[in-house]
Design a protein that fits this description.
Blueprint (H helix, E strand, L loop, with lengths): L2 H13 L2 H8 L3 H15 L4 E4 L2 E4 L1 H27 L5 E7 L1 H7 L1 H10 L3 E7 L2 H9 L5 E5 L7 E15 L11 E2 L7 E5 L4 H12 L5 E6 L2 H9 L5 E4 H6 L6 E6 L4 E9 L6 H14 L20
Parallel strand pairs: 3-4, 3-5, 7-11, 8-9
Antiparallel strand pairs: 1-2, 5-12, 6-10, 6-11, 6-12
Helix pairs in contact: 1-2, 1-4, 2-3
């Protein structure tokens, strides 16, 4: 079993799909299927339980993937250190982004970074913040974006945006004309939220519990535009960060501040504090810190005219 095979195995386990793993690795699905079958024959165990179009790791698969992740991470560290010794300003960075973060904050930043470092390639993985954190800890990603404070241990970070959650309702909602709304007033509403792999999902439920009620969730999604559309057709209410609310131009919804309590939404760049960082990763961290924390009195180029400075 070689490094390439381990990488295939890890990607199938991460995406729970041979087809999706093949797409992510830019190889054919038969190639990856043949590789996994060869590994199973070599090891004498079944690595995946095929359930329809999805696959799940067997007990043996879980054990082998855990070891493979450590081996691949060590190999990548070795490669990165050798590249640095050769002083090659090249590299590849795997970055995890929650879907609602990518379009709002990162297109301009990635473009600016590419202009400065054209030889560094970037691969983006869209997952909920909880999954991004776990993948950074496991070494599947070099860096990621997560809601601070992080849930996982062993991570370094710096914040780049601090916002609050706003309430989004249909214009016919009894509270639609209010200037602000208190959270306990929403106890009888139907909620449309992000999925459970998003930190915001747990944060909202926890705040509702503190306010004395359990939110009635009728729908969950990974896409903020779909969530706002559900509200626009009158299926429920939602709570979204200020930057996302600025992206919503739909006049079929009303947006207002949420108070008592104010629910903060603080984002940060995260990375493993005990892992060797390649030149490319170190430059990404340095560059994004520079871009997201401009000098006083200047606009943040990553956010456009409504950018918000981070507080450190």
């Amino acid at each position: 079993m070689d490094i390439r095979q381990m990488q295939y195995l890890i990607e199938v386990a991460r995406l729970k799909s041979f087809t999706k793993a093949a797409d992510a690795l830019f190889i054919t699905q038969p190639t990856i299927s043949k590789t996994i079958k060869s590994m199973e024959e070599e090891l004498g165990v079944i690595l995946f339980d095929r359930i329809g179009k999805k696959v799940e790791l067997t007990d043996a698969g879980l054990l082998i993937v855990a070891q493979a992740q450590q081996i691949v991470a060590s190999f990548q560290n070795l490669t990165a250190e050798l590249d640095d010794l050769r002083n090659l300003k090249k590299g590849h960075i795997r970055i995890g982004l929650p879907p609602m973060v990518g379009s709002s904050f990162f297109p301009k930043v990635i473009g600016q970074f590419h202009q400065r470092y054209p030889e560094i390639t970037i691969q983006l993985f869209e997952d909920g913040a909880k999954k991004v954190e776990a993948d950074v800890v496991d070494g599947l990603l070099e860096v990621g974006v997560a809601v601070l404070p992080t849930l996982q241990e062993g991570l370094s970070s710096f914040p780049f945006v601090e916002e609050k959650l706003n309430l989004v309702v249909h214009p016919s909602h009894p509270l639609a004309e209010r200037e602000q709304v208190e959270l306990p007033e929403l106890a009888r509403d139907d909620f449309v939220l992000f999925r459970q792999d998003f930190t915001l999902h747990d944060r909202i439920i926890a705040e509702c519990a503190k306010a004395g009620f359990q939110p009635h969730i009728i729908y969950e999604s990974s896409q903020w535009d779909l969530i706002s559309e559900m509200v626009a057709v009158g299926l429920g209410i939602t709570l979204l960060p200020e930057s996302i609310c600025r992206e919503i131009s739909d006049k079929r919804v009303r947006i207002m501040p949420l108070v008592n309590p104010v629910i903060p939404w603080k984002l940060g760049i995260i990375w493993r504090e005990d892992r060797y960082l390649s030149f490319a990763t170190r430059e990404w961290i340095r560059f994004t810190r520079e871009v997201f924390t401009p000098s006083e009195g200047t606009d943040n180029p990553a956010h456009g005219s409504h950018g918000k400075k981070s507080h450190q």
